[in-house]
Write a structure and sequence with these properties.
The chain is mainly alpha-helical. It contains 17 helices and no strands.
């Protein structure tokens, strides 16, 4: 097995967590009812601050609706890898996938209710269970379903955005109202949330699943052309859509809601391309023997413990940023909010890397494996932890 087969998914997950931390910091964690955000909800410009404007531009191009599609692609890719591995071992791959992602959904549910109402593990686990049901369908069928869902979801998402819906809420009322009530509200509106997620996130999961079944990152040579096209699409969306969105969000040009709607739809297709770009980065690191330098080792450790890292972000944001915590950066402009997101991600990077030095798997990864396999002593021995 070559190094990049392991390095690419882990590097991608580590960087994905940075994008998620920054996006959530700006649009959720740092929001405050005393200084509400208006418009498309991608950051506040305080006192005409140049730094806030730069942060909004960076966020519009590289952060907002970038991390989650990449997460969805990686989730699907991991599912495809597991299916192929268990199929060749003549194991009941559908049962293994179902248990694994039911466990993910269960852990996400706890996170959603008690720590962060914007949790993605619960819904992504549910969507993964649906992919399991059609896991033996052909690539053509799965990609057709992905295309139909993207068109349908794009229309719904664009309409909701143009109507001013953001799906978020500012903090400042205390744990019960800010978190528990919002978490319970999500559960009560689950059917609506499910339809929205199934038509927007599912396409990236399906594309990643097809790529994982084919082993595109492990044996990229037959797929280099399509991978380049995915990368080109991702870069094009970042610049062609991201720049106007940033300018519109600052009031330099008009059509803020229109560009936000376009970004919410077009951004959904950036996931595969961003993973490809990180594949190129990982391959470069391997070719230049950089995979063992400390920053890369830390990033890989975070990628391998991405579930622990993701939930740890919620703990740190709650303690450091929320008004009923230390309140650092709460209600701030886009630059400070983005800086807090980077700081929280960096803290998770340090903590997770320190944990990895003990030689143990992440705490949540360990729990997930125990929940996700019917015979842990056998299944965990077979599972190498790289998917």
């Amino acid at each position: 097995m070559t190094t990049h087969r392991i390095l690419t998914p882990d590097v991608a997950r580590g960087i994905m967590l940075l994008a998620i931390a920054v996006a959530n910091s700006v649009t959720v964690w740092a929001t405050n009812i005393d200084n509400p955000m208006v418009g498309t909800h991608i950051g506040i410009v305080m006192n005409d601050s140049l730094w806030d404007k730069i942060a909004i531009m960076v966020g519009a191009m590289f952060i907002h609706v970038r991390g989650l599609p990449m997460f969805a692609t990686l989730l699907g890719y991991g599912m495809g890898m597991i299916l192929v591995r268990e199929y060749h071992r003549k194991n009941p791959y559908k049962r293994i996938l179902a248990r694994r992602y039911a466990a993910l959904a269960a852990m996400g549910l706890i996170h959603l209710v008690f720590l962060f109402f914007g949790d993605i593990m619960f819904m992504y686990g549910i969507l993964a269970l649906h992919v399991t049901m059609i896991a033996n369908r052909s690539d053509r069928v799965l990609l057709t379903v992905a295309g139909v869902l993207w068109v349908a979801g794009g229309g719904v998402t664009a309409a909701l955005t143009l109507l001013g819906w953001t799906g978020t809420s500012a903090y400042g009322l205390g744990y019960v109202e800010d978190q528990l009530v919002m978490g319970e509200t999500f559960l009560m509106t689950f059917p609506v949330q499910y339809v929205s997620s199934a038509t927007t996130i599912m396409p990236a999961i399906l594309v990643g699943f097809v790529a994982g079944r084919r082993g595109m990152l492990e044996t990229p040579e037959p797929y280099l052309r399509i991978m380049r096209w995915w990368a080109i699409i991702a870069v094009a969306v970042c610049f062609i859509v991201g720049i106007p969105l940033g300018l519109a969000s600052m009031g330099v040009i008009g059509g803020e809601l229109v560009w936000s709607a376009i970004n919410r739809v077009a951004g959904l297709v950036t996931g595969p391309g961003l993973v490809v770009l990180l594949f190129y980065l990982s391959r470069w690191l391997q070719q230049h023997h950089k995979q063992h330098v400390l920053p890369v080792r830390m990033l890989v450790a975070l990628g391998r413990m991405s579930m622990t890292g993701y939930v740890l972000q919620s703990v740190l944001f709650t303690a450091l940023v929320l008004p009923w915590g230390l309140g650092l950066g709460s209600g701030s402009g886009a630059a400070v909010a983005m800086l807090m997101g980077v700081a929280v991600w960096f803290l998770t990077l340090i903590i997770v890397y320190a944990w990895s030095l003990t030689g143990r798997r992440g705490p949540l990864e360990t729990i997930h494996r125990r929940l996700g396999y019917s015979r842990p002593t056998t299944a965990l021995r077979r599972y190498n932890g790289r998917s």
